[in-house]
Specification:
Protein name: SPOR domain-containing protein
Strand order of the largest sheet: 2-1-3
Oligomer: single chain
Number of helices: 3
Largest sheet: 3 strands, antiparallel
Order of helices and strands: EEEHHH
Shape: elongated
Low-confidence stretches: 72-77
Helix content: 25-40%
Radius of gyration: 17 Å
Distance between the termini: 48 Å
Mean pLDDT: 82
Organism: Streptomyces alkaliterrae
Number of strands: 3
Length: 77
C-alpha cells in the first residue's frame, strides 16, 4: 500500500474532457495533465476539442502575435 496516493479532487457539477480517453467526466477521473476543464456544463465539456481548435485558429491569426518570425528563426538551427 502506498503512503502517498495521488487522488484527483473535484466538485460535483464540474465537467472535464479527458484527452487520453476522449470522453467527458463529471469530476476529474484522470490526472490534470490529461484533461481540459473544469466546465460548467456537460455540453461545454463535450465541445472542448472544438473550442480549443477555434481558439488556436484565432490565436494563429491574431495580428498582435508575431510568433511566425520567431518560429522561422527557431527552424534555422
Amino acid at each position: 500500500m502506498s503512503l502517498f496516493k495521488r487522488t484527483t479532487v473535484g466538485k460535483p457539477g464540474e465537467w472535464f474532457y479527458c484527452l487520453r480517453h476522449q470522453k467527458v467526466e463529471e469530476g476529474p477521473e484522470c490526472p490534470a495533465k490529461d484533461r481540459f476543464g473544469p466546465y460548467g456544463t456537460r455540453e461545454e465539456a463535450e465541445n472542448a476539442m472544438r473550442t480549443a481548435h477555434e481558439r488556436n485558429k484565432e490565436w494563429r491569426n491574431d495580428p498582435r502575435w508575431h510568433d511566425d518570425d520567431k518560429q522561422a528563426d527557431d527552424n534555422e538551427d
